Amino acid sequence: MLYNALSTLGMSRKLQGTMARQQMDLVRANEEMATLVHADVAATLGASTGRDVALRNLFDRTEEYIKTTDLLDGRMDMMDSAMTSILASGNDLLAAASTGLGQQSPTGTSLQIRARGVLDQVVSLLNASAGNVYLFAGTALDQPPMRNVDGDDSGPPAPMQIVRDAIQAASGGNPAPTTAAETAAVVTALDALFAVYDPPGSAPPNSFEGGLYTGTTAYQAGGGASPRVSGRPADSATIAYGVQANDPMMRELLEGIYMLAAVDTSAMSVDAYPDYIKTAVDKLSGGLGTLREATAQLGIQRAQVATVAEQHRTQKSILNLQIDNLEGVDPYEASTRISQLEAQLDATASATARIAKLRLSNYL
């Protein structure tokens, strides 16, 4: 006669193994309920894992481009604000200086004081920075592009002193021109001072680049134009948005302001004054006009960046939905599964407890 051997130890161990698996499943189900994402995405997706990885990579790249566009927009906003302030101050000075075009004004001293205030303000605005990046320095982003009007410890004479020395040298040693010929000589000297040279090493000592401006030079040491600051808000989009403090419009504007700030026009001779004040006003007007166009162009570029940024945000939303459809867990299904696992675990625990109470003496 054959007998089936029943082992309570074997049954108990089997049930304990079942309980361990059920507990792990319950922990995993609770985790999915909390995160609404499959605990083991790769195991759940199987053959679709490759598509999920590709979507994740595209999502991460899109997020990086959103950060780039936000950074670009922030810098452009600060540049626009600085340029708008320069325009406002410059226009005020232009209006004040234009009143002296008809005849020499006895208030020339106050014009000089006003010009000096505008000069300090413009230099400060051209040294504007966003974080550790100087906005008008070109690719030399880590240092302010404009030297302080009264100088610094960098070595060359103060910018104001450089300008006054050039005026004095062209005026026969006088602090201001005294004849129309000397005024013409002063204008020629200042035009040379505020010019840029190709290559930079060919510039005279204490010229604009080096004496007044220390950012990226207009031309490279080996010749040719220096690279401009640009941003890349998308794979196929590059925007060269950089305005530099040594751009022609800025140099022309600064030359006009320095002409008014360096000389008391009320003390000039009648012969020298008309051409001097007219040249200063023309420089101011020309620089401001081109700066106004550059500000408008910057606004167009900001609009382009904003459009690209909106496209990135739309794409991110779509990608997030696609990823969620692959990796996401339905809350209702997760809750139902937790209830089922808890019921199974209770049943297994009860069976294990009953088996543990079985004794042979109960059947003798």
TrEMBL record:
It comes from the Bacteria. Belongs to the bacterial flagellin family. Gene3D superfamilies: f41 fragment of flagellin, N-terminal domain. This is Flagellin. The lineage of its organism: Bacteria, Pseudomonadati, Pseudomonadota, Alphaproteobacteria, Rhodospirillales. The keyword Secreted applies. The keyword Cytoplasm does not apply. Keywords: Bacterial flagellum, Cell projection, Cilium, Flagellum, Secreted. Residues 7-139 form the Flagellin N-terminal domain. GO terms for cellular component: bacterial-type flagellum; extracellular region. Its main location: secreted. GO terms for molecular function: structural molecule activity. Flagellin is the subunit protein which polymerizes to form the filaments of bacterial flagella. InterPro entries: Flagellin_C (IPR046358), Flagellin_N (IPR001029). Residues 290-364 form the Flagellin C-terminal domain. It is found in: Secreted; Bacterial flagellum.
